[in-house]
Amino acid sequence: MADSTPLLSELNLADSEPPVLHKHLPSLDSTIERCIGDFGWAQFLQATLVSFSWFFDAQQTFITVFTDAEPTWHCTQLTDRHSSCNSASNICQLPQNLWAWDRPKYTSTVSEWALECSSSLVTGLPASAFFMGCLIGGLALATLADTSLGRKNMLFLSCLMMSLSTLLTAFSTNIWIYSALRLITGFGRATIGTSALVLSTELVGRRWRGQVGVIGFFCFTLGFLSLPAIAYSQRAHSWRSLYIWTSIPTLLYSITVHFLVRESPRWLFVRGRKEDAIATLKCIAPIDSATTKTPFTSSFISSLSFEQETWNVDLYSAISVLVERRWAFRRLSAVMAIGFGTGMVYYGMPLALGSLNFNLYLSVTFNALSELPASIIAFFFIDQMNRKTSLLVFTSLCGFAALCLC
């Protein structure tokens, strides 16, 4: 009988020492985190600067609450006892000489273009055009941050387009040009939130990504809060000044992003730009951290497994993933349904504040302040909260509160 010992020895040797090709290589994310550490001041400043784009995003999202508000009016012939004008009258049924606006016509688009008797489809067209632009821009530009442009360039171009179109909006001559420019503004800002969120979180370690992601929502609330302050200071001036005062800082911010913000090292690695990625890692790595002992060289980076990270660089490849993986499609559909309902309430309530019999500036301020507790809770407890449960609880509370307001 043949001796089987050598064969068994070879099999045992093969089991105990797997081929080098099958050894586990470090992932891209873990290697980047090894280079930059958990968190540092350079990463914090970069993430905060990127997240500040939400500040200007909030201003353009809700600016029509003030620019398109219907001004208050008064009767001009109060001494005439036979006059049909009173505070409860419909101005569309009154002669023009019996009433007048409380403020100059140029303080609102409604009074300047005589839209007080137009249908809600016309007066609400600018706001609707803005969100239509957001929808179109989200579908057309979403994948560019993952493919050809990158996170930084996408954020820069989005902020630049939003600022320039906002500046041009101040020179609109009628409701149709005004609405068209609002559509372009919405198209430009569509990817600001996603680009800023992804870029800011990819600049820090996994331990702090949740907290860094919440910084953007803080900035959005601050931008929302700044709007009534700017509008109140410009209440005696033209509605056009509000667009000018919000567009110029956004333009300056866009330039700042272009020159000071670093591109995501992860995106640079995936696109094969290793030298640029190494330069970014050197820039954002903590100076006094032990992680700086990591050799930032091309030979060190060449050991990374890029094959598993390059699947998502083809344009619209995410669509094929949704088709191939049913669970991903179901999850995305559920999230979209939740986002639709949440967006109806979140954006609908501030845009309808002008119809309340209350001071508009205070209404917007209180509405914006109500977001701060949620952001604070999320900042401190985002790592402890279950995503699915918290989403279910908070959306249910939101829906119940909205029903109580009816």
From TrEMBL:
Localization (cell): Membrane
Alphabetical list of Gene3D superfamilies matching this protein: MFS general substrate transporter like domains (1.20.1250.20)
Alphabetized UniProt keyword annotations: Membrane, Transmembrane, Transmembrane helix
GO molecular function, one term: transmembrane transporter activity
Membrane spanning residue stretches: 121-142, 154-177, 183-200, 212-230, 242-261, 332-349, 361-382
Pfam short name (any one): Sugar_tr
Gene Ontology CC annotation, any one: membrane
UniProt domain Major facilitator superfamily (MFS) profile: residue ranges: 46-406
Tagged with keyword Transmembrane helix: yes
SUPFAM superfamilies (UniProt xref): MFS general substrate transporter
PROSITE patterns in the record: MFS
Highest taxon of source: Eukaryota
Membrane topology: Multi-pass membrane protein
This protein's record includes keyword Flavoprotein: no
PANTHER family: SOLUTE CARRIER FAMILY 22 MEMBER
Protein name: Organic cation/carnitine transporter 3
Source species taxonomy: Eukaryota, Viridiplantae, Streptophyta, Embryophyta, Tracheophyta
